[in-house]
Design brief:
By secondary structure, the chain is mostly beta strands. The protein has a single domain, classed as Methylamine Dehydrogenase, Chain H, CATH 2.130.10. The chain has no helices and 30 strands. A four-stranded antiparallel β-sheet has the order 1-30-29-28, with no helix packed on it. Strand 11 and strand 12 form a beta hairpin.
Amino acid sequence: MTMDKVHGTFVSEKINKVKWKPESLCDAGYFVTGSWDNETNQVTLWLYPPYEEDPDLYPYQVATYSHPGDVTEMAFINTDTFVVASSHGSVRLLKTRIDDVKTGKIVDLLKWDKLHYFTYGGPSPCTSVACFEDDIVSVGEDGRLNLLNARRPTPVHKIDEADSCSLRCVCFLKHNQVLTGNFRGQMKVWDLKSPSDKPSTTFMLSGDQIGAMCVTHHPTQRHMLLVGGENGSLTVWDLRHNNYPVTLLSAHSGSVSELKFHPDRPEHLLSCSTGGEVWHWDTTSMSRGTRFSASSGSSIEENPWLQSDAAKHRFEVFSLMPTLHKPINSLDINRTRAICGCDNEAFYVFNDVL
């Protein structure tokens, strides 16, 4: 990517999370950032004008919201409403209200305080949240798992001893089924409808107890998981056959901070790391295998990530910008743009990513 398509914005605070606001009819792009390591942290709504309109235009600050504790995760549940997790152990449901193109505000809808706490009573950081329609699941360093709902002021369900180790990541596989990963690399699948507070499946990320730092599923094939490890590795799992990972790739120089498939073109993946790298993985040129479907009587093209010999194929990996000397904590991608947030007190917008 040419550097004239990268816009860096200095914001005087370390950015821990970034998320694009889901697209509306407006051509302009809105996104939110969340800071950490301040006495009072901020959730900020930004507007990035269409790149084609004027390549020299930089993001506008539209609204700010004072947030207690570090912002540890954010996720939109619809075009205007999103959840924010805190190092104080709480989760908040916030809403963006845009008055006109460049002015607006962020308002509280719900607060779930003291969801995560240690046995001695002190607050435990909420490390990750995931959403499926109005359902929200949170996990934390205390090993707890909470099921919330955007229409209810109290938790729907709690599993106080979901893990004896710090939970680092969570994602919905389908409604009422979530997957968690812990700091020892243990992955667990939970059936939230089950009367038992025990996982339905447990497996290890790898044989070396590598911590699972982030997880994402394929946009159209939720049985395919990609997990980022604390050692910089990317592990591919097919949950239909989860005895062994499909592929284990040595990737980043530091812990993998976040992984994002392009929502409409999942042959493109972005990854970032604490080593200051942000990469674009392109599998469009990889040879794709086929399998025969007995139900349809025809051959079906397989996901290239799920081919058992995928590591032997040529992964095309591009760096979106020179390696930074500070961790890149978060990234997100929409139709044509990507964004990442860093510990160098800046965020970067990448235009025409694909």
